[in-house]
From TrEMBL:
One of its GO terms (molecular function) is hydrolase activity. Keywords: Hydrolase, Membrane, Transmembrane, Transmembrane helix. This is Similar to Saccharomyces cerevisiae YGR263C SAY1 Sterol deacetylase. The keyword Transmembrane helix applies. It comes from Maudiozyma saulgeensis. It comes from the Eukaryota.
Amino acid sequence: MKQMELSGIYFILKIILILPVRTAIYCYNVWYNYSRKITPSFVRRILMREAFLLGDYSTCRIVINPVFEFIDSFFLDTYQEISGYVTEKDHELLRPRLKENSIFLSRENCIRTKYVWYSKPDDFDNARDPILIFSHGGGFAIKLVPLSFNFLNNMSKHFPRMGIIIHDYTVTASKEGEHPLQLLETVLLYNYVTQDLNCEHVILMGESAGGNIVLGTLQFLQQSNRKLPEKAIVLSPWCNPTSDSMDSGIRNSLAYSVNKMMDGLSFEGLDIFTQLLLPQSYVFDDDPMLNVEQNFDSINWTNVLPRTKLLIVYGTDEILQHEIKNFIKKLDSTNSNNFNISYNVFVEENGAHIEPVLNMTLNLEKWSRLPAISKILEFIGSE
Ligand SMILES: *[C@@H]1O[C@H](CO)[C@@H](O)[C@H](O)[C@H]1NC(C)=O
Ligand SMILES: *[C@@H]1O[C@H](CO)[C@@H](O)[C@H](O)[C@H]1NC(C)=O
Ligand SMILES: CC(=O)N[C@H]1CO[C@H](CO)[C@@H](O)[C@@H]1O
Ligand SMILES: CC(=O)N[C@H]1CO[C@H](CO)[C@@H](O)[C@@H]1O
């Protein structure tokens, strides 16, 4: 306990003393070597990236998550809890991947998850009005980043008739958060929204690790013969969270040496998230619902795409773009009528990881005209 407190204090000291210096040096480097203008976005990217690297495995649990939860609580009502059991059909899908020590082997284990209505019109009509389920990112380990509230708030202003639910799934920074719990919790929430609330126009939205959860969930819903959501939006999805991109040499390629300086995410940071995520009691190496690009399952995606309209957004400054582009190519090669790169993909020029979610433009008019945002809004509003 004492040691944990100490490492928390040590982390905070480093944030105060080292972070400003590192950020200044890296910003200077981006300006001097790559001739990019240092915008507030660059300062934010580099601050986030370097702050995370000053911590270690325990930082998420002892500092970052408590601080984020504290700040989030000013913007959100209390989380509600729902619980349920894995159905027999779902269990059949999981069982081949479960090892002897998995807690999911028994169907007696109750699954619990938390969510909150971020926005709900007083006369919300379950049959007519759209409902958006938001799965936040943070490498499966971190809670909702408070910087997301500008995005969520303006989104709710722009679509006053749309319900927005934020999913507070169990993160890997807590001991019980082993994969595929995040997926099962998302399916549980989806069941609740579609069966208990009878919502008919569901949109799943996820950013980064949340994007991975959305892509896994779509496949799970399809394989378990559920009705799929009308739309899904993934922003900078982490496509291969447990595969090591070091092996493929991507990290050392020339293009990535530039992206590494520009992005808000680092390969070293991803490694920490991967270590926390690696399932102990689940066979994941060939799982198409986890490493969605590497283990791409074209048969299942051929069944998903006609049912769910998918939008993928990423930026050209991202270190994750290589696997996102490959994933898009694979989706495109299924030749679905409901997916083409010109409509279902938006590439943000000079955009970093999850840039649309973190953009701090306060004026609704201006915000809704930012290229990536305007595409997302148009997609949500489309028939
Ligand atoms: C791409 O999809 C959109 C929406 O489904 C459609 O309007 C458009 O015609 C398609 N474009 C091509 C080139 O197939
Ligand atoms: C928001 O996005 C626009 C367009 O990409 C960019 O010019 C602006 O600097 C961003 N603002 C912030 C505060 O992130
Ligand atoms: C027009 C409008 O409501 N814009 C809001 C976008 O979100 C930010 C952060 O919550 C608000 O400050 C703006 O007023
Ligand atoms: C390759 C393949 O068919 N993968 C899975 C797709 O979904 C079905 C169920 O709908 C599974 O049985 C397959 O294993």
